[in-house]
Amino acid sequence: MQIKLGEKIKELRKRDGRKQEDLAAALGVTNQAVSRWEANGGYPDIEMLPAIANYFHITIDKLFGYDNDRQIKLQSYIDQADQMCKRVHSYMDQADQTLKRKESELLVEFLRNAISEFPSEWQLQYRLAGALQSMAYQKDKTRVTTAEGYDYFRYDTEKNAQNEYLKEAISLYEGVLKKEIDDSYRTAAILSLMTLYSLIGDFENAERTALSQPPVRISRELLLVWAAEDEKGDQYRGEAILALMYELNGVISSSVMIKHSLANSQSGLDKLLAVARLYESIFDDGNYGPFHNDLCLLYLRCSLIAVHLKDFEHALNYFEIALDHFIEFKQERENFRFTAPLVRKANNIVTGICALDREFFEQHMQSFPAECANSIRNNPKYSPIFAQ
């Protein structure tokens, strides 16, 4: 029993990322006592076993026969955090923003407490990073600045770099990426880090992170195009098309909107409309699924440029198309299937979702003439979005 117990204490301590002195301080014994236990040179008094088990959040029985109780508890925390996160993102109306911030704070507090029990678990650290990133956007919105005679929009990196939520989220994501984690989470963490580095102006780390990744030509989606034939090949080709379409949209949209000379010009508008038409050509049956979100954002950008051009008729038209896509996106079924010929076999789709809400649309409409904005608010078709 002595050998088993010493080995188990060492295993549990390393599992939780604790030092011998941490355990010694918690139990009120010397560091040397813990060292002797783990080296099989002795064992703790029987009266101390409940305190040891409690420290590692296990039963005394499990101290001598480790099982999956810890994993069950960890998973319960993960599930609860995911449910809380969904609740945070469910708030849409402007009136809900105070409640949304409160729920976000509760989520952060919950995850901090869970991490105090499971300090080495990346699943919790990853979720805390995401919650802090959301808090940063809610409490201290990131700003874009411009300089006279300068053609590019830029983040107010000096201000953003002082945002404690952003700095802690970056630290957590960096820590998570040093661990053995699922590929999907690794990808998401890298994408989040790239955004955060850009926000605070840490372009050195952004470039380093980007250069450490494989080039587009050897991405999973493009390689799989050659990995199968017939229906399986059709699936992989469809998934490659969707992945490339999503990324192309992101690059072209950001290239247009970040540059004054394009973001305020007919040339910029034409480029965004070309991307929208490419989407519409791929989804030629109108069955966009999650990509309704992409089209919504695209047409909102088109509307914004049209406003700058004082073309309010087209601005209103683009805005209404964006709202139509938003409504369709909100009504999408969980077991959605694509039906357009090029992508109907695709089923493994990873796409970013921008959580739009009433406040976002209302802010956009502030640039419209009053009659245009009122025509949208008074349209029964859009009443679910703008209803008080």
Short characterization:
The protein has helices at residues 2-15, 20-27, 31-38, 49-55, 60-64, 69-89, 97-117, 122-139, 157-160, 164-176, 183-200, 203-211, 220-224, 230-257, 260-263, 266-282, 292-308, 312-330, 358-365, 370-377, 383-386; strands at 144-145, 154-155. The protein is mainly alpha-helical. Helix content is 66%, strand content 1%.
Give a structural overview:
There is one protein chain. By secondary structure, the chain is mainly α. Helices cover about 65% and strands about 0% of the residues. It has 21 helices and 2 strands. The chain has a two-stranded antiparallel ribbon. A hairpin with an 8-residue loop joins strand 1 and strand 2 (about 155). It is elongated, with a radius of gyration of 26 Å. The model has no long low-confidence stretch (mean pLDDT about 90).
Q: Mean pLDDT, nearest integer?
A: 88
Low-confidence stretches: none
**C-alpha-based Rg, rounded:** 26 Å
- Major sheet size, sense and barrel closure: 2 strands, antiparallel
Helical/strand content category = mainly alpha
Neighbour order of strands in the largest sheet: 1-2
| Fraction in helix | 55-70%
User: What is the strand content?
Assistant: under 5%
Individual helix count? 21
Q: What global shape is seen?
A: elongated
The sequence of SSEs as H and E is HHHHHHHHEEHHHHHHHHHHHHH
Number of strands: 2
Task: Give the distance, in angstroms, between the N- and C-terminal Cα atoms.
Answer: 67 Å
